[in-house]
Amino acid sequence: MGALPASAALADRLALAPCPFRVADASREQLRAGLDTHVLACLRYGREPQSDADPRSVPIPLERLDDAGVAELWISDEPVQTGESDGIRYAANRSILFGWLHLDEAECATMERSVLRAYVRIDQLINRLGYPHWLRAWNYLAHINQGAGDDERYRRFSLGRYNATALKSAFERELPAATAIGTYGEGLTMCFLVGRHRAQQVENPRQVSAFRYPRQYGPRSPSFSRAMLQHWRDSSVLFVSGTASVVGHATLHPGDASRQFDETLTNVEALLENAARLSGLPRAGFAPEAYKLYVRSPEFFAEVADAARERLMEKGPVAVLQGDICRTDLALEVEAVYRWQGDPSAPGAQR
Ligand code: 3EB
After folding, report:
1. What is the pTM of this model?
2. Are 157 and 115 a contacting pair, CB within 8 Å?
3. 152, 263, 303, 333: which one is catalytic?
């Protein structure tokens, strides 16, 4: 899978639409007036996040440990159309759709079946509306580590998700970038971003693909890609999955948040380099547009705060959220949206 010659890649890019969204942090004041017509999604954080009737407003019960914004906005380049169908709320522009649904605790009692049905419902909706390609999924599951062995809620979630994705042909290449994090709330909130065009899967050479994890992590492997890369006319976007201190398939540095943080950023860098190699886009042109740092406890955040400030917060917006990571030996996890806009000084750059 070599990169296209630069001239062909440029010609292909000119045939694409401009990127139809950006990600931004929102303050409480910005949200008071209600959501603008261009907002695709508003992810509201907090121990008891506000919820309202707007289908784009998604309460995520995770405490925010930094003192920046209270919500993450996905902003469309044109007014969006909203809807609700089969319990799924969504907003779309001409090329992407953001949607979400909530399963309550009663539905989580039959997790495998409820998650399978939720994914099938989502697939039916996005196929009907014409946005069949998965880019990104977020799964916020209360009590994610509850239950022993294969009865753990996270493993039961993974089994339901696998059963849904394995229904599709060539499914391993179509898996979205994903996050699975434990919350203080109840039930499971699933958010997703899908598009009209297929994105490119990017795996991490330092890590076994999650969809190939061995049996010891559960009866079925977690169905997600390490990252997905989508090209637009003016820029390319790399959706980076939840990334932690996992090398090969093993957790490294259990109990040491600081070394886990270093290992995690090494993983993100390896992923970016692989995205650059696969696409032919110079690494130097990729810049972080939005970052999240999930930490299991405020104590772990205190251990990495200086490093996080220097290595992440000085380079772009970062939300720090307290939540449980899906393996109990992981202290933290990051996720990111990177945008490639070209770097005129880099060799091989096209713009
Ligand atoms: C890992 O590398 C860490 O099950 O959707 C990260 C991102 C992790 C997504 C998921 C799990 C998921 O395996 C855990």
Report:
1. 0.95
2. yes
3. 333
